Structure formats: structure tokens, C-alpha cells
Amino acid sequence: MFVLPAGTTVGLMAQRRPPRELGAFLLARGLWLVAIEWFVISTAWTFAPLGLAQFQGMILVPLQVVWAIGASMVVLAAAQFLGGRACLVIGAAIVLGHNPLDGIWPVSHRGDIQRCGLRCTRR
Q: Which ranges constitute the DSSP H helices of 3-83?
């Protein structure tokens, strides 16, 4: 529900602003949201601005909804210059290609997790 109003707002803004101005706005807003997720929300979520002992002092940055909206705005800042048809084709490919790709998963880096002090268990 958070992404739908953001996308609707961008669509309405596209009718009133020239593409270059809209692109600059989306880029700035998207980068701002990503920064907020990294520095403010991750700190508030973990209450550990100097890092977590379980991660050997590293800071946990869970990329969630705010980051997804910000990253989408950065992509949309560039995608708007492709035109309506190209965006329609890319959107259709994403929607239609989503389920066929369910069986493909990235390689697991269990060694990286173990170095951070987490236990890996099998289900």
C-alpha cells in the first residue's frame, strides 16, 4: 500500500512538470529516502548506531519499504526518459516473468554468515 500512492503521485506530477525537472526531483527524493533508511531507520530498528557485537561491530541495515520506494524513484527518474511504450514493456516483463523465476535463487554464502557470529541451521 505504500508504493501505490507514491507511484500515483509521480504519475500526477508527470502531467504538470517537464521530464527533466521531474527526473531531478525523483532522483533527489529517491536518494533521500535511501539515506533515511540506511542511517535513521536502521539505527532506530537496532538501537545500535555503533554496530552490533553479534556482527563484529558492523551495523545491520535491513532494507525495507522506505528503501524500496526510494530505489524505485531513482530507477523511475531514468526510466521516464524511455517513453511510455518502453515502460509498459518493462512493466509487463516484470509482472509476467515474476512467477517463472521463482525457482531461481542466488548462491548462499553461509561462510559469510558464520563469520558474523550467526548459526546456520537446516530446516
A: 3-16, 19-35, 42-46, 65-79
Whose cell is 505504500? That residue is: 2
Look up the pTM and report it: 0.69
Contact 32, 101 (CB under 8 A): no
pLDDT of residue 71: 93
What mean pLDDT comes out for the span 90-102?
A: 88
Grid cell in block for residue 100: 517463472
Residue positions counted in the chain: 123
Sequence ranges of the domains in the chain: 3-84+106-115
Angle formed at CA 78 by CA 76 and CA 84, multiple of 5 degrees: 70
Residue type, 20: R
Side-chain half-sphere exposure of 22, counting CA atoms within 13 A: 20
For residue range 14-43, what is the model confidence (pLDDT) as tens digits? 889 998 999 999 999 999 999 998 888 887
